[in-house]
Write a structure and sequence with these properties.
OB fold (Dihydrolipoamide Acetyltransferase, E2P), about 55% strand, single chain, eight-stranded antiparallel beta barrel, mainly beta, 2 domains
Length: about 170
């Protein structure tokens, strides 16, 4: 079975596994029916919900009730490489898109998971969060400006004056 990590909030990550035609999310069976390449009906118990999703590499960006979540395929062989590439306080663009709004300004103290900006790609909005505690240093793109996949969207450096505690 393939394992996935669902990141929808700073408080909790969920685990999902494909199980036949269904998906087990935190060991709860969820039925998924494709309506189109980007729209799905999801049924858990008797509740039916429509979700929108965009696939990019090993990640799926899902929008449900105006909230965006990222589902990542967990590949133990690549886990360490991905952490190193997106570490050091650098927030990279997971896909090409446009900056919708900034939620934090340069010079502000942030904690890991603090929302920094909102981006949009293919009508799907998602919030980019700080990858470490520190001070937001750099916002290379202004609101409305487009960027490519892999572009640096924000930089957070450790707060040396306050011992990196926020």
């Amino acid at each position: 079975m393939t394992t996935y990590s669902i990141q929808g909030s700073a408080e909790r990550n969920h685990q999902a596994r494909k199980h036949g035609a269904d998906v087990l999310v935190d060991d709860i069976r969820v039925s998924v029916l494709a309506l189109s390449p980007q729209s799905f009906n999801v049924k858990q118990s008797l509740k039916l919900k429509k979700i929108h999703a965009v696939v990019h590499g090993d990640s799926v960006y899902v929008q449900l009730h105006g909230r965006a979540s990222r589902i990542d395929r967990i590949d133990p062989a690549r886990t360490q490489a991905g952490t190193a590439a997106n570490g050091g306080g650098v927030c990279l663009a997971p896909m090409p898109g446009v900056v919708v709004s900034w939620l934090t300004l340069p010079g502000q103290l942030v904690k890991t998971g603090t929302p920094l900006l909102v981006i949009e790609s293919m009508k799907l909005q998602m919030t980019i969060e700080a990858t470490q505690d520190g001070v937001l240093q750099d916002l290379p793109f202004s609101e409305g400006q487009t960027f490519q996949r892999g572009a640096t969207l924000a930089r957070v450096s450790p707060d040396s004056q306050n011992g990196a505690s926020v």
